[in-house]
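Why does residue order matter? Because the sequence determines the fold. Keep that principle in mind as you read this record.
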Amino acid sequence: MKVLLACPYDWGAPGGVQVHVRQLAEGLRRRGHDTRVVAPGSAPAPEPWIRIVGRPVRVPYNGTVAPISFSPGAWRRVRSAMRSFGPEIVHVHEPLTPSTSMLAALAASAPVVATFHAYLDRSRLMELAGPALRRVSRRIDAGIAVSDAAAEFLRRVIPVPVEIVPNGVDVGRFAHPGAPAHGLPAGRKVLWVNRLDPQKGFRVMLDAFERLPAELDDVHLVIVGDGRDREALRSLPERIRPRVLHLGTVAHDLLPAYHAVADAFVSPAVGQESFGIVLVEAMAAGVPVVCTDIHGYREVVRDGVEGLLVPPNDPAALADALARVLGDAALASSLAEAGRARAAAYSWDAVLPRLEAVYERVAGPDGSSAEAG
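Structure:
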């Protein structure tokens, strides 16, 4: 089947949607599908099956920044990609974002499958834009939400029927990482992999790390990622600074080597999370998870089973949970074992057949209902 995937965000920027679309495209190609991707980009893509269709503009939105592209030039390039490829399915991601995916949905003549990744506690802007977004929704033949949280948010915005198909994760890569990362300090390690910003709870994490008991003075915080809250590192007490290592942005393919040396994984996001790819990656690697008890996260991690859940914006509770995991080997082992088992449900081997079933339902098993775009 010929499948055109549309990603709304800068292809070269770190982000869960970009990782998901890239791995989806690779997985579909391994299963014999002819796959292309259209996306914005600040630079040419290394993969020959990617077409960069516009330069991204960084737009602040709900505490984060979205690198999107929505312009007449992007519209022309999306339509050109449709004509030259002739897809049987157009699979758009986050089509309510004014970027490439929205343009692809509007330009498509083939059936459109839409995956909705986002969850916001409230988005007044999206709710007000509901009438305009319904034009996009009418082009969608099948809607997919990555979680109940994402489906709940979508129902507040536009009336699109959806089914739940979770994000796929390269479980095998994290379960079998090869050589562990070198050059890290000795002792136990708490791993952070995420943006450094308020939504992800970075300052909450730093506050919690300062509160760890004195007997955990061999524990280091390894930070992978970057963002505006990096300035908070400068305010750490002198006694803490040598135990905090900020690595900056690390290529996704290199992350498993850091998980391989971690004793705990932490993600204290304060809200607006629909899923938690980083949680599944940690579980696949057998790293005990400590994260916040928010809608999207609790769908992935069960408290006391695969990880420990704590209230958002509560550094004392976060510190206590980390201390439990780091100080109780039996608990850590139990969480790690359960996490590995649960991660298998999110592997691409489990997710791809569910997506293929959606494609076949809307296009027909031989693609007979699709029109070349």
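DSSP finds 14 helices and 15 strands in the chain.
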